[in-house]
Amino acid sequence: MHLTEIPTFPPEARRGLPLAIFIALGVISGAIGAGLLLSFVPSLRRAEIPLGTQSVIVSSPGTVVVEEGTRISDIIKQGKAITAAVYNPKSVIHIGDKIFYPPTAAKGGAISLTGDGWFATVSDVPLSVGDIIYIQSEAHGIVKIVKDPATPFVLLKVGEGNFSSARFTSANDYKTGMTVIASTPAAEAVRMNVTNIDLRPDTKDGATRSSDTLSSIIGVTQTAQVMSGSPVFTLNGDVAGLTQLNGSSVVVLPGEVLRELFDRVLRYGQPNRAFLGMRYAVLVSDDEQTSQAVIYSSSGSPVVLGSPAAKAGFKSGDVIVSIDGKNASESSDIFGIVSAHVPGDEISVKYSRGSQTFTKTVKLTSLSPGG
pLDDT, tens digit, for every residue of 101-112? Predict the structure, then answer.
C-alpha cells in the first residue's frame, strides 16, 4: 500500500481584535446599560437590608457599603446627645473649676426624651429628687419623678437646659436575631442580639400575663455588662428601648411603650392608667396562625377581687373572643388594649364559657401603684 505523507503546519494566527479588547468593550457596554437602567428605574438605586445584618451595612441610597463596626461607632457618637446617667450629687469630683462624674459611680442610665428636660430610666435605678442627670459633661438636677404603675419606666424632669430628643423605632421593626447596641455613659458600645420579642417578665410559669401591666419585653444576648436604664439602639440609629437587669441577664423594655407613657403624662400630667383586673394565658393554634386569651393564673385567682373584671363576672377558664372590638388574635395582648384607655372608659368584652357566648360592657377604673 502506498502511503502519502500529509504535511502539517502550525495554525494560522487568528485575525481580529485581541481578547482583552472584547472584555473591555463588554465592561463598558454593561456599565452603560446599568446606568441607563438606574436612570429610568430610580427605585433600584436603593439597597435595603434587614435590621440586624451582621457583616456589612449598605447605605440608602445603596452606593456606600460600611463595616458594621464603623456603623456601631457612628451610632454611639450620635447617641451621646441623648445618652445620660443618674448620679447621687455627692458623687461629683471637682478638678479646678471643672466638675466630673465618674461612670463607675453612676446609679444607672437614662435617655433624653425632649428638648425641655424630660428624661426616662427604669424602676430598678434608685432615684430621689435632687439626684443628678449627667449628659454631655453637664449636670442637671432632677426636680420631678413620675413612676408608672403599669411598666418599669420612670420619667424624670430636670431644670433648665437644652437637650436632644430621642427617636424610637416602630414595634414592627423588632425582629428575632437583629443586632442592637446598648450605649453606656462612658460612650462604650455593647453589642447584643435579640433572642425573643415576646418574653414574659416576672412570671414563674413563663405563660401568665396581666391585663394591666407590661407583659411583653425583649430578650437579648449580651457580650458585656450594661447598666439598667441604658439606651438601646437599632443599627438604623433609632431607640429600641432601655435595658433592665433581670437577675444575671439583661432585657430590653420596648421603646414604643415608653413613648406611649410619655404621651399620657404630657396629656394628663400623670400616667392615668386604666385597670381591668385579670390574669390570662395565650393559647396558640398548632399551625401558629391564631391565638386566644384564656383567663388563667398558675397561682391564686386570675380575677382580682373587687376589680372591674370581677364585677363583670369573669371566671377562670373563660375564653376571650373579642375585646374592645378586636378579634381573638388581637385580644391576646389585652394590656396593649387596656393601656389605650383611661379610667372611666367602657370596653365591650365578648367571651365564651363552655358552649355559651356572652358579651359584657366593663367600666375601667384607675390602676393604683403596685397594680
Answer: 988 899 999 999
Neighbours of 76 (CB within 10 A): 19
pLDDT of residue 135: 94
Check whether 16 has a pLDDT greater than 80. Answer: no
pLDDT value of position 55: 44
Strands (E), 265-338: 274-275, 279-284, 291-295, 319-323
Round to whole Å and give the CA distance between 26 and 162.
58
CA distance linking residue 81 with residue 119, whole number of Å: 12
Confidence at residue 57, expressed as pLDDT on a 0 to 100 scale: 43
| Helical spans, DSSP H, in 54-126 | 68-79
Q: Which residue has the cell 439583661?
A: 250
Instruction: Evaluate whether 75 touches 64 at the Cβ level (below 8 Å).
Output: no
Dihedral Cα 114, 199, 181, 92, nearest 10 deg: 60
**Where on the phi/psi map is residue 227: left (φ > 0), alpha (ψ -120 to 50), or beta?**
beta
Say if CB 249 and CB 318 are below 8 A apart.
no
Alpha helices in the chain (DSSP H): 19-40, 68-79, 255-268, 308-311, 334-338
For 81, other C-beta atoms within 10 Å of its C-beta total: 14
CA distances from 117 to 41, 144, 230 (A): 45, 11, 17
Q: How many CB atoms lie within 10 A of CB 62?
A: 13
How much is the mean pLDDT over the chain? 81
Distance CA 83, CA 184 (A): 7
pTM for this model (two decimals): 0.78
Query: Degrees (nearest 5) of the Cα angle 295, 296, 299?
Result: 150
Determine the Cα–Cα distance for residues 221 and 248; give it in Å rounded to an integer.
11
Q: How far apart are CA 206 and CA 213, in angstroms?
A: 15
Sequential DSSP letters for 149-207: SSSSEEEEEESS-------BPPGGG--TT-EEEEE-TT--EEEEEEEEEEEPPS-SSS-
Q: Give the pLDDT mean for 157-182.
A: 89
